[in-house]
Amino acid sequence: MLHQDWMRLALVQAEKALELGEVPIGAIIVKDRQIIASAFNEKELRQDPTAHAEVLVIQRAAEKLGSWRLSDATLYVTLEPCPMCAGAIVQARLKQLVYGAADLKGGATGSVLNVLNTTLWNHKVDVVAGILEDDCSNILKSFFKRLR
């Protein structure tokens, strides 16, 4: 499968968030060409500021694998991760991050900050940006337009 195929599956997770009134961000983790975990934002549902799609999917993948080290896995997420999520990506030792839409207000993997591209960490994450960017951006735009 191509990055676009996996991102479509992350968008399915974003749609689930949308149905629940959450900010529609979805994520999946792929290892050995299989989805090992999926998640969407649950901040409102849980009333938990850390319940971002990326954090939840990392937790689920670690639980499934019985290890916090996700070094052979790729995270697909519909929006560029924030600083908290970028830190979790480094801590999980993910091999690759693939995201859809850039977050020009709070993105921490290239737009506002670049937490993953620094010589300070002993782990490097390969980043691929802009996969299905329009689709990922449009679901967010329509959500916020409805809120207004």
Question: Strands, helices and their partners?
Answer:
Layout: H1 3-19, E1 26-31, E2 34-40, H2 43-46, H3 53-65, E3 73-79, H4 83-91, E4 96-101, E5 126-128, H5 133-147
Parallel strand pairs: 3-4, 4-5
Antiparallel strand pairs: 1-2, 1-3
Helix pairs in contact: 1-5
If you had to describe this structure to a student in words, what would you say it looks like?
It is globular and about 45 Å long. The mean pLDDT is 96. The chain has helices spanning 3-19, 43-46, 53-65, 83-91, 133-147; strands spanning 26-31, 34-40, 73-79, 96-101, 126-128. Helices cover 39% and strands 20% of the residues. It has 148 residues and is α/β, with parallel strands linked by helices. It has a five-stranded mixed sheet with strand order 2-1-3-4-5. A hairpin with a 2-residue loop joins strand 1 (26-31) and strand 2. The chain has one domain (3-142): 3-Layer(aba) Sandwich (Cytidine Deaminase, domain 2). Helix 1 (3-19) runs parallel beside helix 5. It has five helices and five strands. It starts with a helix and ends with a helix. Belongs to the cytidine and deoxycytidylate deaminase family. ADAT2 subfamily. Pfam families: MafB19-deam (PF14437). Catalyzes the deamination of adenosine to inosine at the wobble position 34 of tRNA(Arg2).
